[in-house]
Amino acid sequence: MKKRKQKEKKKIEVEKRPILEDNWSWKRFYMICLMTVFGIVTAVVCGTLSKIESGSRIALGFCSMLFLIIFVLGMEIYRLKKGWFHEKANNYVRITISHGICCLATILFIFLPVYMVPILVMAVGMTLVTNSFLGMLAGIFYAVVWNISQSGSVYQFLWALLLMTCGAMMVDFLKEKANWKWAGLLIAVFVLGCTVVFSYLDTGKVSINMVIYGLGNGIVSAVLSIWLYSWLKERMSHTREHALERIISEDFSLVQAVKKFSKVDYEHARKVSHIARECAKEIGADPFVAAAGGFYYRIGRMEGKPYVENGVMLAKSNYFPMQVVQILSEYNGEKSLPSTVESAIIHIVDSVVAKFDVLDKSTLSSSWNQDILVYQTLNENSAAGLYDKAGFSMNMFLKIRDYLIKEAELL
Q1: With the C-alpha atoms ordered 370, 371, 374, 375, is the resulting torsion angle positive or negative?
Q2: How far is residue 17's CA from residue 322's CA, in Å, rounded to a whole number?
Q3: Is residue 104 scored above 50 in pLDDT?
Q4: Contact, 340 vs 323, CB < 8 A?
C-alpha cells in the first residue's frame, strides 16, 4: 500500500513537470555532422581544384577535423554555461548554414587573384551568428584551407589572418547604425593597407596592381560587410520574435504545463503577458520580450521554493532567449532588481494585476477605487527604489500608469 502511494506520488510529480519542447541533442548531432561534411568536402574540393600534392591534401583534411573539434567544443562550452551566448549557441541550424556558405565561398575564392579575395566578409558573417571568438576561429580555418590550396606564402596567410581578425572585431562596431559609414571607411582603408604591406613583403616591391587590388577589395569588403550585417540582423530579429511568440503559443508544452498546473496561474499569466506587451508598445520597449517574460514571470511556482532559481532552471531547460531568462532571475526583485525596462514593466503589471485579483468586484466597481489602487501600487514600488537600475524614466513611468488607469477593465 505504501509503495503504491509512493508510485502514485512520483507519477503526479512527473506529470507536473514540463516537457522539453525540442530534442536539441539530436538536432545538434545532425548539425555537427553536417558541419563536418562541409569542412571535409571544402578541403577535398579545394585541394583537387588546385591540384596540390597528396600530402597537402591530407594536411587539409586534418585541418578540417581539428577546426571542427575546437569549434564545436567552443559552442558546447557556451551552451552548457547557458550564458549570453546561449540563445545563439542552441541555433545550430543557422550556424551550420552560415558555415556551409563560407565553405562554398572558400572554394570560389581560389579562382580569384590572391589579394582580390574579400575574405574579411566571412569572418563578419560567422561572428554575427556566433561571437567574435568563434567567428575568428572559423575565419582562421577558411584562411588555412584557402592558403594551402593556393600554395600561398606565409605573408599571404598572414594577410588573410589579419583581415579575418578585423572582420570579427568589426561586428561590434557595426551595432550602431551611425557607425556604419566610419566602419566602412575603416574596413576599406585597413584592407588597402594590409594588401600593400603584405604584397610588398611577399614580392619585395609595391606595384600599381596591388594598390588597385587593395582598393577594390577594400571597397567590396566594406560594402558587403555592412550589407551582410544589416540583412542578417533583420533576419535574426524576425527569427527571435518568432521564437518569443512560439514559447507563449497555446500549443507550446510549457504553456500546457502551466495550464494543467493551475488554471488561476494560467489566467494570471495570460493577463500579465497581454498587458505587459501593450505597455511595452506605449513606451517603445520590446513587446515580444515583455509578453514572454510576463507570461512566465511566476513559472517558478510550478516547482516550489526557491521560486527564482526554479523559474530560471525551467526557462533554461526549455532554451528560452536570455532576455527572458534574465527577467525571471529578477522575479519580484527577490534576488536582484529589474535591470531592463521590460523587466520593470512586467514587475509593475504583475503587482497591479495581483492586487486586482485578490480584491472583490464590489470594491473595484468604482473607477475611482481602481485608479487609487493603480496609483498606490506604482507609488509604493517606485518609492522602494525597485526600478532604479532599469533605465526607467519618469516619462515611461507616467505613460504606463496612465495606460493601466485607462485600460483598467483589462485588469
Answers
A1: negative
A2: 21
A3: yes
A4: yes
d(CA 286, CA 278): 10
257 CB neighbour count, 10 Å cutoff: 19
Q: What is the mean pLDDT of the chain?
A: 83
Q: What is the pTM of this model?
A: 0.68
**Number of structural domains, the chain?**
2
Q: Cα(109)–Cα(119) distance, rounded to whole angstroms?
A: 8
Within 252-321, residue ranges assigned H as helices are: 253-261, 263-283, 287-295, 307-317
Enumerate residues 6+ apart whose C-beta is below 8 A from 299. 254, 258, 310, 311, 314, 315, 328
151 SS3 class? coil
Looking at residue 377, its pLDDT comes to 81
Cβ pair 61, 44 in contact under 8 A? yes
Q: What is the mean pLDDT of residues 118-132?
A: 91
Please name the residue that has the C-alpha cell 573539434. Answer: 69
Instruction: Say yes or no: 149 and 258 in one domain.
Output: no
Whether residues 199 and 301 fall in one domain: no
pLDDT, tens digit (0-9, with 9 covering 90-100), for 332-375:
888 889 999 999 999 999 988 888 777 655 555 555 566 777 87
Query: Is 17 among the domain residues?
Result: no
**Is the same domain home to 301 and 353?**
yes
The CA distance from 235 to 258, in Å, is: 31
Helix (H) or strand (E) holding 246: helix 208-246
Domain that residue 325 falls in: 252-410
Is the pLDDT at 231 greater than 80? The verdict is: yes
* Same domain, residue pair 262 and 234: no
CA distances from 166 to 173, 181, 183, 314 (A): 11, 16, 11, 39
CB neighbours (10 Å) of residue 65? Answer: 13
Cell triple for 161 = 589572418
Whole-number pLDDT of residue 359: 66
Alpha-carbon distance of 297 to 102, in angstroms, equals 40
